[in-house]
Amino acid sequence: MKELAMAPSGLHGRLTVPGDKSISHRAVMLGSLAKGETRISNFLPGQDCLTTVKAFQDLGVKIDREGENLVVYGQGLKQADKALDMGNSGTTTRLLMGILAGSSFTSQMIGDASLSKRPMKRVSQPLAKFGAEIDLSPNGTLPATIKGQKLHGAQIQLEVASAQVKSAAIFAALAAKGPSTIIEKLPTRNHTEIMLQQFGADIATDADNLTIHVNPGRELTGQEVEVPGDMSSAAFWLTAGAIVPNSKLTLAHVNLNPTRTGIVQVLKQMGAKISIEQLPSKGEELGNLTIETSQLAPVKLTAEDIPAVIDELPLVALLAACAEGTSEIRGAEELRVKETDRIKTVSQELGKLGVEVTELPDGMIIKGRKDWQVKDDNLDSYGDHRLGMMAAIAALKSKQPLKLANEGSISVSYPGFFSDLEKLLK
Ligand code: S3P
């Protein structure tokens, strides 16, 4: 149980958030598939990304790591001599399924209790259209056996708006014989596509931002990748800056890829005082974000808004809990299959603070209030990193001390979270 800090005098200062989780995973993956050395800086040393490093080491790739700097020596993959342990990481699991589907060997994958409940048919089914053979448990979950096959090109329409599923399909398409077209339901984060272009792949997205064309055959070559700051980590401090009285803070070098900036749009819609300074960048868009305490108006989100803010929806709920009026999040049924059922767990934790949240099958209705009436000061992450951090941000605004159970899960994506908080409290 961790005693959570309060912030009666607000949060101040400037912070550089850790490297982006999605981009860190992909840099290791592409570095492993490419020929030659890939040098990665500002890598996120969170548990999930370390799971990716370990998996590729188990697949025979030499990877040296010194803190946030990695060198990946790409030389092709070899069969692992044991089951690959995916830990808590959905991204490692789903993207690696796409990579291993076209390998020349069989692999096994296992995961922790939470990951072993998460749906994997959403990957095995589209991959089957390329000729992949992936066996899952009878529930469609891990453990999985991936029998590497010679794949063929395909035209596929994805049924879930998921960057993980899309990326798995892209990896299968790259290993296939012949071109492929992958069509998304809604645009999702496009880091795989952008980084593959940098590594030399023949991949292009149509102007609709939904249709992706992959022409296999080009060799990938090792690159330098500087990982930008993670918007999903910055989002915790943006939320804190907006809701904690007397705050003003700046987040430096944050990735501003438009498929990830949904939280900035939501903050703007809610009337938050937020400003963006765009920075020059060789890779994805980058900038500094400044936020200060703001009076928030309620917000309504629908399915089209969800992919760009998918991981920040617990924070949107927290912002809504502080807004004057009733907010609605709809079209977000994907929240039910994250590290926890985030519709249920977010409603439960905000309920402990006296906030009225109605669970919907695909979202939440949240009645904001100026002052919370804490009913239960024992908050819980339930093993979900983003829920644990949401609770810690809520505590900053609370007038009554709160505690957090299972705070260890935060290291999945943000190992330095509490030390960064200390910096902003000074
Ligand atoms: C991710 C995609 C999203 C996101 C996850 C990271 C990625 O998952 O929630 O944290 O790196 O591709 P889905 O693709 O399941 O929406």
Overview of this protein structure:
Helices cover about 30% and strands about 25% of the residues. It has twelve helices and 23 strands. The strands form six sheets. A four-stranded mixed sheet has the order 2-15-17-16. A hairpin with a 2-residue loop joins strand 20 (about 355-360) and strand 21. Helix 4 (about 120-130) runs parallel beside helix 5 (about 165-175). The radius of gyration is 21 Å and the shape is globular. The two termini are about 25 Å apart. The mean pLDDT is about 100. Shikimate-3-phosphate (S3P) binds next to helix 5.
Descriptive terms for the model:
4-stranded mixed beta sheet, 12 helices, 24% strand, globular
Distance between the termini: 23 Å
**What is the molecular shape?**
globular
Q: How many runs of DSSP E, i.e. beta strands?
A: 23
Helix proportion: 25-40%
Give the oligomeric state of the chains in this entry, treating copies of one chain as homo and distinct chains as hetero.
Answer: single chain
Tell me the major beta sheet: 4 strands, mixed
> What is the radius of gyration?
21 Å
Name the structural class. alpha/beta
Average pLDDT for all residues: 98
Uncertain residue segments: none
Widest sheet: strand ordering: 2-15-17-16
> Helical element count?
12
The ligands found in this model are: shikimate-3-phosphate
Strand content: 15-25%
